[in-house]
Structure formats: structure tokens, C-alpha cells
Amino acid sequence: MKQVIEPIEGVRKAVTEMEQRAQIQIRDLHAWFDTHHVLRGITLEIVEHKVTAIIGPSGCGKTTFLRCLNRMHELVPGARVKGQILIDGQDIYAPGVDPVFIRRRIGMVFQKPNPFPTMSIYDNVAAGLKLAGERNRRKLDEIVERALRQAALWDEVKDRLHKPGTSLSGGQQQRLCIARALAVEPQVLLMDEPASALDPASTLRIEELARELAKEITIVIVTHNMQQAARVSDFTAFLLEGELVEYGPTDQIFTKPKDPRTEDYITGRFG
Amino acid sequence: MDLRYYRRKWTDAAMTAVTLLCTAIVLAPLFLILLFLVKTGISAINWDFFTKLPGPAGEPGGGMANAMVGTLILVTLAGLMGVPLGVFAGLYVAEHPKARLAAVARFTADVLNGVPSIVAGLFAYVVIVLPMRHFSALSGGLALAVLLLPIVLRTTEEMVRLVPQSIREAALALGIPWWRMTLRVTLPTAAAGITTGIMVGVARIAGETAPLLFTAFGNRFWNWNPLQPIAALPLQIFSYAISPFEDWHRQAWAGALVLVTIVLGLNIIARYAATRQTKPQ
After folding, report:
1. Smallest Cα–Cα separation from A107: which of B199, B46, B174, B123?
2. Which CATH superfamily, name and number, covers A9-266?
3. Which CATH code fits B47-278?
4. Which of A104, B133, B138, B229 could form a disulfide with B175 if both were Cys (CB 3.0 to 4.6 A apart)?
5. CA distance A263 to chain B (A)
């Protein structure tokens, strides 16, 4: 089932060196909003159980790229996608693939914390399971606790699980959203600038969390904050005007980038 | 220069006074009506008024218990027909803003909203009363439902549209199918606003008289059968007000007081519910 694709030099090397597996293979991915060509042929591989950061200036297509990975891009009227995305060898854009199942395997955390306003903390975390039909109270209790522990939120909320999710602070709400995404046990977690609306302390917690979670699931994080990418990620992809400029292990991208444009961006000459 | 300054000052004061006056004039009828209602109606309000059937013509005493219950039944019937239809149609219109059917539904609702209420009564008369050959609570409920429907539809549409896209995306990103997201996430998030709309709508139809004249018809006795004519507060007020008896006039005022109190109460509750919805955000 696994399809062989042209190796991307640096990553492929690192991958074979560390005996890691490419979990997501993206081949010649194009995306449009109506006639606006946002992604122009992106090819890269995302490694299992690692943190991959997507960086680039505003409007370069980072978020669109991320939203293509769980088929959220197509929800916008007029949005179109071309190309292939294989997750564990399965083409998620193949005809007959139900996006609902793809989204269950590939969770997402958004830029702004967006807990369900009518639900309690508990119900927010349980939402993915409850709305998929899970009724077993014991099982739900277990999963909610596990997800909240994973999201490093359990100790702060265990005494008020039935308070509204919106009663938490911004940073806590974002961790609640992470717990909500984790509760359905995704294989991949997409994070779209998850800390951009948070204070520095909360930002740090989210970053620690991303590192911690990468032991068990693959993480793709979009960020406009290069320090954050350097701190949190194993691999970094630099996007510019819808094209992939450079992709490789994070330390390499930040210490000896191959493309002058990458260097310019990282050293703050534009963007 | 000074002159100009004073002129500006004066104009400002004059305009402020004019707007204040207009506001007062707008508020005056409501308070005058309330005042007058309380003054004239309160004397006929007693325990009997809420518990007894209307007395025989010309005799003092008796009450409007059956009319109050009748209004309750009529409004419930209208709600059973109008609310689910309005909510689901509103949901459709909100979620498919560009669909042709949505545009038609929205336009129809607006037209329906402007239709004189007696026309709604005529409609129910033709659809239910004529085939059944007698007046009924059901036909009254239908007439009121026709008036309730557009209010519920438009409020639902507006409230569902207010649900932030980010909330929907959060649900979809969890792998929740679209229809389930709509029913379990979008609708509950809009629920408080929709409830407010329903209450405002109910307050509106509770006081309608014209559509009930030849549908619910009125009844001087208890009736629990939706297929039989039923009493309603506005009808009772109408027939008592045009009667020649002094006591009935007083009871008509009392009935009006009760009706206005109910409508006012519903509006206040609706307001309260609306502010509660906006708070947690």
C-alpha cells in the first residue's frame, strides 16, 4: 500500500538515520480560494511522533496548508484542492473518503480558544465521543480524565468539571480545546498558531505540552513566531507565497539554511 | 464668534429637548394604558375572576377562568405547530443563505409577518373550520401558528447566524458530521436567543383577537377538546366590552389587565433570557 515518493533530501536522511516513519506524505498539493492560488505545489513528508513546524510570513498559506491536512479547507465556499495527501498510506482526498473519518483521526486546535459555549468543561472534552454516540458513563469519565491529564489541565479543573468551559482563562481554554481534540484519540494533532492569542506563560505551557504530546502523536504546528518554532519543533518547513522554500530538521533550518530566502526570513529581514 | 457659539449652544439644547419630548410621547401611551388598565380593571379582579366560569348574562359575579385556560391551550397548539416548523425552517435558511429556497422562505416569512392577522384567521377558517363544519380550538391554534411562524423563523435564522464560525469548525474538526453539529452544537448555542424570539412571538399571538373570531369562536364553558370551540381572553374581553352590562365591562377591563400583564411578563422574561445569553461570551 505504501507509495514511494521522491525523497526530500534532508528529511529523508534524518528519517532513515533515526529510523522514523513518514506518517503524512504530501505530494504536489495545490489549493485555491476561488481563483486565488494559495498553495502552489507543496511536496513534503511529516514524520511520525515528531513536532513539525510550518513557518512563513502572513498570507504565505501556512494555515491553508494545515487545513488541507484534515480536509477543513474545503469547508470554505469556493475552496478547492488538488494533489495527494497520504496518511499512513491512505489518500485522504481519494473519491469516497468521508472527511468525517479523516477529521476523527486528525485533530485540530485553532488560533483562538473555541470551547463550546453551552457545554461544561466535562462535556467539552467528551463532546467528540458523545456526539459520535458514546454513552457509557464510566468510559467517558475515564477518557475525559485522561485527555485532561494529557493536556495538563486536570489538576486545575478536576473540582469544577461541570462549570462552563468558557469560565476558564484563555490559556486554560486553549488547553481545554487540546484535551477536547485528544479525547477522540487522533493520530495527528494540527495546531494553528495555538498560542498567538495567549500570554507568554500560557504560551510556554502550550509549547511544553506540544513537546510532551509528540511522544505519542504526530504534531504539526503553524506559527509565525520563529523562536517558538525553534523551541518546539523537530522539523521546520518554511513557506513563502504558497511554495515550500525549505524543509529540514529544525536546527539545520535555523543554523545553516540552504536557501537565502530562508535565511533572510529567519534573521528577520522580511515578514 | 460669540454669537455663533451661543446659537450652537441653543440649537443643541433645543434639539435635546425635542428628542426628549418625542421619547416621552412615545412612552406615554404605554404608561397611560397600564395606569388606566390597573385603575379600571383592578376592581373586578378577585379570586372568582381567576377560578370561575362566566356568569349568566346580566348577573354580577363569575370569572374568566375558562378564557385564561383557553388562551393557554390556543397558544400551546400554535406553539406545537409553529415552533418546530419555524425553528427548522430558520435553521435551513441560516445554514444555506445562498439557496434559492432559502431566499423564497425568507421573503415569504417577511410577507407573512406583514399579513393582517384576520387573514390568518380566514386561512384557518377555510382550511379547518369549513371542512369540519364547526369552530374549533385547533383552527384557532392554526391561525395563531401562521402568525407565530414567521417570527420564530426569522429569529432562529438570525440567532443561528450569530453562532461563531469557530464553534462550528471546532465541532467539524472533531469528526462530527454536519447535521449532528447543527443539532447538537449550533442549535444549543443559539437556543437562548431562539427562546427569546419564541417568547416574544407568543406574547404577540396571546393577545390576538381577530384571527380567533371565526376559528376558536369563544365558549362560555370549559372545553378541553381541541376539536370544539374554545374560549380565549381576547375574545372574552371583546364580547364583554360590547355587552350592555356594567359588571361585564369591569370584567373586560380586568381581563385586559391580565392579558397585558402576561404579555409584559413574557417580554421581560425574554429580555432577561437574551441578556443571559450574551453574558458568558
Report:
1. B174
2. P-loop containing nucleotide triphosphate hydrolases (3.40.50.300)
3. 1.10.3720.10
4. A104
5. 34
